[in-house]
Amino acid sequence: MAKAHVYKRDHINTDEIIPARYLNTDNEAELAKHCMEDLDKDFVAKVKPGDVIVAGDDFGCGSSREHAVWAIRGAKVQTVIAKSFARIFYRNAINCGFYLIESADAVNKITNGDEIEIDYDAGMIKDKTSKAKIKFLPLPDFALEIIRDGGLLDHIMKTSA
Amino acid sequence: MGMTITEKILARAAGVKNVVPGQLVDANIDVVMCHDVTTPPAISMLVAKGIDRVFDPDKIVVTPDHFQPAKDVKSAELHKRLDEWAKRHGIKHYYKLGRAGVCHALLPEQGHIRPGEVIVGGDSHTCTYGAFAAFSTGIGSTDLAAAIATGKLWFKVPASLKFVLNGSLPKGVYSKDVILAVIGRIGVDGALYRAMEFVGPALAGMSMEARMTMTNMAIEAGAKNGIIPFDDTTKAYLQEHLKEKVKYTVFESDADAEYLATEVFDCSKLEPMVALPHLPSNAVPIGQCAGKAMDQAYIGSCTNGRIEDLRIAAKIMKGKQVAIRTLIVSSTPEVWKQAADEGLFDVFYNAGCVISAPTCGACLGGFMGVLAEGEKCVSTTNRNFVGRMGHPKSEVYLASPATAAASAIEGKLTDPRKYL
Predict the structure, then answer these.
(1) A107 with A128: CB under 8 angstroms?
(2) pLDDT tier, B1 (very low <50, low <70, confident <90, very high otherwise)
(3) Pick from B24, B142, B189: which is nearest to A95 by CB?
(4) pTM (2 decimals)?
(5) Which residues of B touch A156 (CB under 8 A)?
(6) B332 pLDDT exceeds 70?
(7) Do A152 and B143 count as a contact with CB atoms less than 8 A apart?
(8) Cys-Cys link to B4, which of B164, B238, B257, B402 (CB 3.0-4.6 A)?
């Protein structure tokens, strides 16, 4: 069951998601050990495969380090739901084939620990604990194509072949 | 409808006549900047996908900077991966230790940045090069891999915000104070996905170094790029720094170009600014925070580690003693040599500072001056996020080189104007 890890905060930045002291590696499993460490040092102990992170505005602001996406993906987080995302983080996630959800309501409607189910095609988040249903706009087609192809490099190889 | 500089550059790079904000374009890249943290993963991706190639070995500029000289075995491995790749592909502009420097100071200094071009780099502060009327933006490793292999990237054309800088800077107030005031007003996502175009008479009094300090921090307002129109100062810098005679195109925003919003600043009324922890937008005039005790001062980085910055700091420190640990980090070997030749290092040594090799070092909490729990650092860098320069419970106060120097002398946040 996917659980929500809710951080009612804006501007959660890449230094909090993966501190620069760990950037001497690009090994995803190693980065995952320190995921969200400077924001919530217990996150790695709490998170289970398929869980989601829920946050406020401007998630992933700061550095261009794709390591932030890798750390989250490496921690087996299914997706991040935020009011809005910082530009480079958003682009990096799509390029890695990692789906992000933009939702103005989720951070207010979902309580930490709630059970979540996401229908990506329909654009619907179901909070099974509170029974709330939250709609979201699925990613635009060009981004979905990149994700479907497994990321930007595979997409380029496929489309230029 | 007219176009902005940013729109015109992207239109040229995409080979189309017109673009409008929101449009997706496939742009040809003129320069790709590569450093030691984000490029090694890009190389590994390309190798893993069986497309280990470079679109043009002359258009890629490589300099290790974040963890150089190698801070530990793991970062040495990153450097090795970068080195082997650069040699394998005959990268023409590869700056090795001894000539390597903080990327955003090094590339303009070594003549790799030209107006009208599209520059991408695996670093969020790549927006720095917009000071030369170029379009430049930071990207992650996958984009970097794509740019390296194909020389192309897709972009969504950003809408532009205009920042009119009126008046001229008073004594003791620098471009760092201007950009902190701008971010303080609009917030860390005030320019999210936008182009920040800086115009106005205050720019005339700013050197290229000073202008780069401003475009460098465009990302701290969430912007895609920062841009400053070409003028005589730009021209003179290029004449001095371009190694080869290369033709470049100067674009100007049309009179009827559209801006989402215009913000006006009277620079003559600005005071030295300090961004309090933990966001660059927490900017306040020095009067509101002076007296706060510091443990360290850091003068360096891609924001303020250029020769002009070291001169400003040295002028204030001359004949004085620092009261706290103070690090002077020249951003490039040329800046280091120039500072040595001008006698600035004598001033810093006599004042009790330590002088470091060019590196990003402690700016991002890497090494060479990281902070312990509870410590406070006044820093000329660009970010003061939680844990940015070390322990998650340390604090970073962003300021100009003058404010950092004055604060180093007194061991507390200090108005630099009393030393000028």
Answers:
(1) no
(2) confident
(3) B142
(4) 0.97
(5) 146, 149-150
(6) yes
(7) yes
(8) B257
Q: What is the 3-state secondary structure (H, E, C) of chain B?
A: CECCHHHHHHHHHHCCCCCCCCCEEEEECCEEEECCCCHHHHHHHHHHCCCCCCCCCCCEEECCCCCCCCCCHHHHHHHHHHHHHHHHCCCCEECCCCCCCCHHHHHHHCCCCCCCCEEEECCHHHHHHHHHCCEEEECCHHHHHHHHHHCEEEEECCCEEEEEEECCCCCCCCHHHHHHHHHHHHCCCCCCCCEEEEECHHHHHCCHHHHHHHHHHHHHHCCCEEECCCCHHHHHHHHHHCCCCCCCCCCCCCCCECCCEEEEEEHHHCCCEEECCCCCCCEEEHHHCCCCECCEEEECHHHHCCHHHHHHHHHHHCCCCCCCEEEEECCCHHHHHHHHHCCHHHHHHHHCCEEECCCCHHHHCCCCCCECCCCEEEECCCCCCCCCCECCCCEEEECCHHHHHHHHHHCECCCHHHHC
User: Mutating which of A153, A156, A158, A160 best tests the B interface, going by the most B Cβ atoms within 10 A?
Assistant: A153
For helices B333-341 and B307-317, angle between their N-to-C axes, nearest 10 degrees:
40
Length of chain A: 161
Domains in chain B, CATH or no CATH each: 5-265 (3.30.499.10), 273-419 (3.30.499.10)
Which residues on B lie below 8 Å from A24 (Cβ)?
A: 67, 71-72, 74-75, 78
Mean pLDDT of B408-418: 98
B27 bridge partner residues: B153
Residue B199 CB-density burial (10 A; 0-12 exposed, 13-18 middle, 19+ buried): middle
Check pLDDT > 80 for residue A161. no
CB contacts of A96 in chain B (<8 Å) are 142
Give whole-number Cα distances, A52 to A35, A77, A144, B409, in Å: 13, 6, 19, 48
Which chain B residue is nearest to residue A88, measuring alpha carbons? B139
CATH code of the domain in which A118 resides: 3.20.19.10
DSSP 3-state percent helix, strand, coil across chain A (nearest 5) = 35, 20, 45
φ/ψ (deg, to 5) at B326 = -135, 125
Query: Stretch A20-39: mean pLDDT, rounded?
Result: 96
In the predicted model, what is the mean pLDDT of residues A49-77? 98
Residue B54 binned pLDDT confidence (cut-offs 50, 70, 90): very high
Checking if the pLDDT of A101 tops 70, the result is yes
How is residue B144 written in tokens? 């970097």
Instruction: Categorize the per-residue pLDDT at B73 as very low, low, confident or very high, splitting at 50, 70 and 90.
Output: very high
pLDDT of residue A86 exceeding 70 = yes
Domain of A32 in residue numbering reads as 2-160
Domain count, chain A: 1
Token readout for B169 is: 């800077």
CA distance B78 to chain A (A): 7
pLDDT band for B224, please (50, 70, 90 cuts).
Answer: very high
d(Cα A104, Cα A123) in Å, to the nearest integer?
13
Quick: pLDDT tens for B102-146.
999 999 999 999 999 999 999 999 999 999 999 999 999 999 999
* Tokens representing residue B176 in the block: 């760092």
